[in-house]
C-alpha cells in the first residue's frame, strides 16, 4: 500500500516536499550474506539488492499468515455456536447419533456477545476493513517520512508470528479473544505490506527487472500458500483431529514457519532506509497521507473520467472478492454443514483453478481487450454466485460447492491481473508506480461493506442464501462503472495524450489523438 503514499507526495509541481531518497544504485551492490539458499530465493544479477532475497523469503511467511486464517475461521464459528448454545441451555456435549442435541432449537442459533454466532467472521471482516482503511495512510506516511521503514516491517512480522502462536490455543475459553486478535492480525498485515512494498519499489528502475522480481515473489507466495493448504489438510485428515484440531495444526505450522522465515529474512536481508522525504510544511505526520490521498482523488474525480469510473468499479468488485472467502466459509459451516477438512479442499479447488483462470484472462484480454475481458469476468461472477445461492440449500448440496468454488477460482485468477492490466493502460505514462498505490488502496477502502451487509441481513433473520447473493450487488456495481468508461481505445489514447511528451497535468485540455509519441503498453507486457 505504500506505493500510494510515495506517489501522492510528488504529484503536483508546487508540492513543497523535499525529496531525500537515495538512488537505487547506492544500495544495489550489497552482497548476499549466504549462498546456501535454494536458487529460487537467489538473484544472481550483480546489481540485485540484498532486499530482493529478503522479499522472496518474506513471501513465504506472508502467504502462511493469510492461509492459516482460512482454517481458523471454521473453528471460531463452531466455538461461537457452542458458546451460544450453552448460554441458552443447550448442552452441545450430549449430542444424539445425528450430531445434534435434542434440546437445541435448530431454527434459532441463539446469540453470544449480542450477535448471532454466524455473524462472527463477517463482523471480524467489518472491523478489520474499517481499521485498515483508516490506518493505511498513517502507515504509509510513517514509512515515507521517517527512517522507521525496517522497524515497521520487522515488528509487524514479529507480532504476526506471536499472534499465530497464541492462536494455537484456540478453545471454548479463548475463541472470543482470538477473534479480536484476528482484527489486529489483519491491521498488522497491512502495516507489514506497507514496508514490504516500499522495499519492492526500490529494487530496480528498469520495468523489465521489476516485473521479474514481482513475478518471482508472486510465484513463491502462491506455491507457499498452496503447499500449506495441502499439508494442513492432509495432516489433519491423517490425524483425525477434527475441526478445532485442524485449526491448531494450521496455527502451529504457521507459527513455526513464520517465526523462522520472518526472523531470518528481516535480520539478514533488509537494511534500514532514511526517510524518503520530509513532511510537507502544511502537514503533520498524522495528516500527510490523508491530505495527499484527498488531493489526488479530487483531481481524478474532476479531470480523469476513465480512471474515475475504473477505481469506482474496483472499490466495489474487489470488496466483493475480498469478502468471498469469509462469507463462503460462514455459508459452508451454517448452511452446508461442511467440516474444516471439506472447507480446506474447497479452497484447494479455488487455488488450483486460479492458474488456468489467469491464463484464460490473458487470452481473452488479448482477444477482445482488457476492459471487455473484465466485464465478461464480472458477468461470470454474478451468474456463478447467483446459482450457488439458489442451488446450494443444504447438506445434500455439499458436492456442488467444489464446482462453484472452482469457477470462483477461475474468476479470481482472471479478474485481478486483468484489472491490473486495464489500469496500467489507462493511467498517464510516467506515473505508473505512483498511481498503482491508489489502485491498491481503492481495492481495500470498501472491503468492510460486503461483510457488513451480510451481517445486517443475518442479524435481521434473512436467509444466508440472500446474504451470499448480496455479493452480486457489488459485482454488478463494478460492472456498471466499467461500462461507464466507454470505449477502451479512447481511454488508452486519452492516457497517452497526458503522458510523457505531452501535457501531463490533470486539468489540461482533453486530447485523444495519441500524437505525443508515448509508448503504448501492450497487454502481454503487463501480464
TrEMBL record:
Region called Disordered, residue ranges: 88-109
Main location: membrane
Family matches, as InterPro entries: ATG22/LtaA_families, MFS, MFS_trans_sf
This protein's GO CC annotations: endomembrane system
GO molecular function, one term: transmembrane transporter activity
Subcellular location(s) per record: Endomembrane system
Keywords: Membrane, Transmembrane, Transmembrane helix
Superkingdom to which the source organism belongs: Eukaryota
Keyword Transmembrane part of the UniProt annotation: yes
SUPFAM superfamilies recorded: MFS general substrate transporter
UniProt feature, compositional bias: Low complexity: 89-98
Transmembrane segments: 120-139, 151-170, 220-241, 253-270, 309-333, 345-366, 373-393, 399-415, 436-456, 462-482
UniProt topology in membrane: Multi-pass membrane protein
Protein name (record): Major facilitator superfamily (MFS) profile domain-containing protein
Species name: Skeletonema marinoi
